Amino acid sequence: MRDYLASKEGEPASITEIKAAIAPKVGVAPDSSYRSGLQDERYFERVSRGVFRLRRGA
Questions:
Q1: Which element (helix H / strand E) includes 6?
Q2: What number of CA atoms fall less than 13 Å from residue 41's CA on the CB side?
Q3: Euclidean distance between CA atoms 9 and 56, whole angstroms
Q4: Distance from chain centroid for Cα 13
Q5: Average pLDDT for residues 13-23, to the nearest whole number?
Q6: Which pTM value belongs to this model?
């Protein structure tokens, strides 16, 4: 997830976008797994409901 969001250069992405982008690498997982991973505030910033971006400096 970090690599994908880093490639967006600060632009936010929805869980649906993130899921589609990394599914080829990690396979299929429920949305709750992505939400859990995105809760790490050291790396991710919640922009709005279901939308995240990489925290600056992460």
A1: helix 2-7
A2: 0
A3: 10
A4: 7
A5: 94
A6: 0.85
